[in-house]
């Protein structure tokens, strides 16, 4: 034993500083190459090579099971391909459930002193109003000519004054709309003005319907009158919903959906009336009708929304959430119904990853904007503002969401150009949301960043450490040699202590025979 120790000590004493420099330099080079390869593999395939080899080859040898294989790949690929059609990445949509500017947004400003709407959002609304409520033949009717100028006014008081001026000439539907949206301070007052607008709008619609085939000018006028009529009925239905007459609101929204399907004007689809209908049906807890509406609109060929995806997830979660327990599920595995609910939640979270933090009240809500960006923070706020109560009403639904929503990000490929169930998450979403949301008092939610795998961080640290050792050994060879000898002596001290104890216990003859073996 003492001969072995003396040989080891002699070997360490004969080592020169050049050996330590070469050793640490070689270690640094190897760990650097591993780091470069790991980084390249992660950037290309979205996973660590060492982790993948460990999971794919070492875990089965140790008795583990790889449960990460994706389920139902045909559906996923089909839906992803269909959603990769020419979609404008940052197309802004009008919020189907937008609040009333006078009765709700302005009241918030009076109470808090904060402006809930941004200039960009209000400018988009002004453009929408000009598209919905004006046409080239407005100069034929004096009141419509006044309103055409009113919609272009930036000053709210100037718009309201112009609407009153138009009403002095005749019953003008668009003038009543402007007053109901901006001057009315209560929902009941807005409803009264919308009813007057409905009476005037129906008369204009009937007259233009008879003349629509007499030329392009009359056809454009009829299209405008159709937009006005649909807008008024939709806002009347929303007034009924806000005033507690939910069944009446559902009936009006159903009639509007039928009317929208009968007419082939592209602007009608921008209203997304089915989302108003879904919210009202959820308030009535009429889940069978909610499922029927989803079956009609949750189609591959139609654009998705947070309302559609999360409502579908809520219905599937409702079937299992009251008895769901993460501890029990980890022991026995997920049942078929639970798996369907989890997959629906993953699908919804991939479409809009910002919603769960608002539903779980991890982030405070603000008033929703008048326009939203699908898959963005603005859409998440608009959805959670109206639908949080419906999730709370279903027992255990928020608990199931809390337990499963973060697992979505392990399924999404990285980089994000690949997507999973939907087209890739748009890069420009954060920038557009900052234009739509009041960033003065609201922190815009951004897409969760995918963390680097442990082995990339480990190899980076190892490479840096060995490179530092190589540099110190080159600059201070004698000092590093003393340090290396002290380190090795400390490292082998427990082993030497054990060997001494063994020698003191065992007979010398037996120990001599063992060393010879």
Helix content: 55-70%
Tell me, what's the shape? Answer: elongated
The run of helices and strands is HHHHEHHHHHHHHHHHHHHEHHHHHH
Overall structural class, as computed from helix and strand content, comes to mainly alpha
Mean pLDDT: 77
How would you portray this structure in words?
The chain is mostly helical and 517 residues long. It folds into 3 domains: 95-286, no CATH class; 297-451, no CATH class; 456-516, no CATH class. 68% of the residues lie in helices and 1% in strands. The protein has 24 helices and 2 strands. The chain has helices at residues 2-14, 17-45, 49-61, 73-83, 101-112, 119-133, 142-150, 156-169, 173-183, 187-211, 216-242, 246-262, 273-283, 287-297, 306-318, 326-332, 336-351, 355-359, 377-393, 397-404, 429-436, 454-475, 477-505, 508-516, and strands at residues 92-94, 371-373. The protein has a two-stranded antiparallel sheet with strand order 1-2. The protein is elongated and about 120 Å long.
Strand and helix map with partners:
Elements: H1 2-14, H2 17-45, H3 49-61, H4 73-83, E1 92-94, H5 101-112, H6 119-133, H7 142-150, H8 156-169, H9 173-183, H10 187-211, H11 216-242, H12 246-262, H13 273-283, H14 287-297, H15 306-318, H16 326-332, H17 336-351, H18 355-359, E2 371-373, H19 377-393, H20 397-404, H21 429-436, H22 454-475, H23 477-505, H24 508-516
Antiparallel strand pairs: 1-2
Helix pairs in contact: 2-22, 2-23, 5-9, 7-8, 8-9, 9-10, 10-11, 11-12, 12-13, 13-14, 14-15, 15-17, 22-23
């Amino acid at each position: 034993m003492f001969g072995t120790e003396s040989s080891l000590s002699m070997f360490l004493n004969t080592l020169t500083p050049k050996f330590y420099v070469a050793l640490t330099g070689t270690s640094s080079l190897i760990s650097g190459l591993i780091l470069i390869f790991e980084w390249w593999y992660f950037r290309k395939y979205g996973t660590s090579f060492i982790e993948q080899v460990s999971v794919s080859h070492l875990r089965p040898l140790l008795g583990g099971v790889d449960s990460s294989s994706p389920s139902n790949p045909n559906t996923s690929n089909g839906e992803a391909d269909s959603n990769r059609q020419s979609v404008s990445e940052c197309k802004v949509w009008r919020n189907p459930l937008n609040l009333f500017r006078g009765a709700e947004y302005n009241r918030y400003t009076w109470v808090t002193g904060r402006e809930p709407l941004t200039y960009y959002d209000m400018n988009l609304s002004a453009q929408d109003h000009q598209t919905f409520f004006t046409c080239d033949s407005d100069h034929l009717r004096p009141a419509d000519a006044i309103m055409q100028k009113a919609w272009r006014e930036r000053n709210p008081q100037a718009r309201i004054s112009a609407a009153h001026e138009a009403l002095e000439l005749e019953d003008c539907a668009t003038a009543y709309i402007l007053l109901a949206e901006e001057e009315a301070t209560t929902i009941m007052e807005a409803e009264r003005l919308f009813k007057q607008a409905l009476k005037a709008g129906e008369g204009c619609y009937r007259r233009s319907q008879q003349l629509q085939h007499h030329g392009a000018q009359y056809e454009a006028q009829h299209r405008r009158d159709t937009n006005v009529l649909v807008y008024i009925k939709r806002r009347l239905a929303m007034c009924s919903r806000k005033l507690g007459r939910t069944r009446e609101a559902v009936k009006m929204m159903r009639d509007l959906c039928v009317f929208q399907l009968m007419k082939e004007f592209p602007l009608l689809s921008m209203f997304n009336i089915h989302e108003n209908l879904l919210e009202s049906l959820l308030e009535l807890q009429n889940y069978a009708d909610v499922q029927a509406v989803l079956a009609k609109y949750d189609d591959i060929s139609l654009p998705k929304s947070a309302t559609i995806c999360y409502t579908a997830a809520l219905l599937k979660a409702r079937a299992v959430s009251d008895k769901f327990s993460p501890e029990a599920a980890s022991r026995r595995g997920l049942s078929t119904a639970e798996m369907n609910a989890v997959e629906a939640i993953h699908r919804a979270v991939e479409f809009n990853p910002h919603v769960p933090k608002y539903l779980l009240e991890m982030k405070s809500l603000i008033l929703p904007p008048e326009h939203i960006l699908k898959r963005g923070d603005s859409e998440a706020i608009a959805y959670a503002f109206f639908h949080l109560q419906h999730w709370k009403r279903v027992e255990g639904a928020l608990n199931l969401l809390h337990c499963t929503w973060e697992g979505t990000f392990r399924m999404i490929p990285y980089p994000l150009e690949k997507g999973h169930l939907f087209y890739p998450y748009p890069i420009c979403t954060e920038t557009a949301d900052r234009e739509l949301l009041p960033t003065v008092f609201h922190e815009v939610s951004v897409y969760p960043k995918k963390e680097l795998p442990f082995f990339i961080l480990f190899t980076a640290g190892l490479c840096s450490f060995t490179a530092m050792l190589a540099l110190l050994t080159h600059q201070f060879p004698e000092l590093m040699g003393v340090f290396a000898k002290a380190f090795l002596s400390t490292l082998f001290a427990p082993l030497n202590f054990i060997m001494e104890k063994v020698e003191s216990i065992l007979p010398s003859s037996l120990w001599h025979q063992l060393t010879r073996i």
